[in-house]
Design brief:
This protein is mostly beta strands and 135 residues long. The protein has a single domain (24-125), classed as Jelly Rolls (Sandwich), CATH 2.60.120. Helix content is 0%, strand content 43%. It is built from no helices and 9 strands. The protein is globular and about 40 Å long.
């Protein structure tokens, strides 16, 4: 159940959001739930949600970029962050800043689902244009 107030905090749960995903003919790449986004909630300035990359997820052939800055915070699991400057092992508790325009993707290298919080510095998830377009 959501609690909404134009004059105060906004509380959202995963159960309040629709599951979305990217997949291709080989299977699931990532699934996510957008929790805060101006087109869905009475909020502005930031867009945030939870993403999960299963152990058996398909690794994308390349990363993606977008104009917005993005933050990942690893909630569970471990993986590899892939950027143009190389690869970095990431684990639970890591905070990652991705500047706008930086091509990136993350893969699960652990034995459990990789779960992360994502935050964009924009009002709405609809503002985020992925390059190249994601599946």
């Amino acid at each position: 159940m959501s609690e909404k107030s134009a004059d105060g905090p906004l509380v959202r749960r995963i159960e309040d959001s629709d599951e979305e995903n990217w997949s291709n003919n080989d299977g699931l790449i990532v699934r996510w739930w957008t929790l805060l986004s101006k087109d869905r909630t009475p909020s502005s300035g930031l867009t945030a949600g939870i993403a999960e990359i299963p152990v058996d997820a398909v690794a994308p052939e390349r990363g993606h970029s977008h104009d917005q800055n993005e933050i990942y915070f690893i909630l569970e699991g471990e993986g590899t962050l892939h950027t143009k400057t190389g690869k970095k092992h990431v684990i639970k508790g890591d905070a990652i800043f991705l500047p706008g325009g930086e091509e990136h993707h993350i893969t699960n290298t652990g034995l459990e689902t990789l779960k992360l919080l994502y935050v964009f510095d924009t009002d709405s998830f609809d503002d985020v244009e992925y390059v190249p377009p994601c599946p």
